[in-house]
Design brief:
The chain has 3 helices and 3 strands; from the N terminus they run H-H-E-E-E-H. With about 130 residues, the protein is an alpha+beta fold. It has a 3-stranded antiparallel β-sheet. The termini are far apart.
C-alpha cells in the first residue's frame, strides 16, 4: 500500500475539486470523488481501521427540505466544522473521514458560508475556493 503522504497528496486535490464543484456546479451532473473512495477501500483492505482514526474529520448529515435523489431526506457529509464534502452514503462518509484523519489532512481549502444549494437545483451563491 502507498504511504499516508502519497494518499494525502492524491486525496486533497480530488476532494478540493469536489468541494468546488458542489459549491459552484457547472452542469447538472453529479461529481463523486471515486478516487478517494478507492483509496479508502485499499486502506481498509490493508488493515487500516478507518472508523477508529482520531482527527478533525467526522461524519454528519445535512437535512433536506424535500426528498432528494433516491428519495433521501438527508445528505451524508464529511466535515471538520469548517469545510464540508457531500458524499453519496453514510458508509462512504465514514471511509472518507477516516482516510483524511489517517493521512493527517486537517484542512481542505475551506469554503466560506457553507450553505446547501437551494431546493430545486438552483445555483448557490458564488464562493471562492483558493
Amino acid at each position: 500500500m502507498k504511504s499516508r503522504e502519497h494518499i494525502s497528496n492524491l486525496s486533497e486535490p480530488v476532494l478540493s475539486n469536489t468541494i468546488r464543484h458542489q459549491r459552484q456546479p457547472r452542469e447538472h451532473l453529479r461529481y463523486e470523488p471515486t478516487v478517494v473512495y478507492m483509496l479508502a477501500e485499499q486502506a481498509r483492505r490493508s488493515g487500516v481501521n478507518l472508523g477508529a482514526m482520531p482527527g478533525p474529520w467526522r461524519v454528519s448529515e445535512r437535512q433536506l427540505t424535500r426528498p432528494g435523489r433516491r428519495s433521501l431526506d438527508r445528505i451524508p457529509v464529511v466535515t471538520n466544522e469548517r469545510t464540508e464534502v457531500m458524499v453519496d452514503t453514510m458508509e462512504r462518509a465514514a471511509d472518507v473521514a477516516g482516510l483524511l484523519n489517517w493521512c493527517g489532512v486537517d484542512e481542505l481549502n475551506p469554503v466560506p458560508d457553507l450553505t446547501p444549494p437551494p431546493p430545486g437545483g438552483g445555483r448557490p451563491p458564488a464562493t471562492s475556493v483558493s
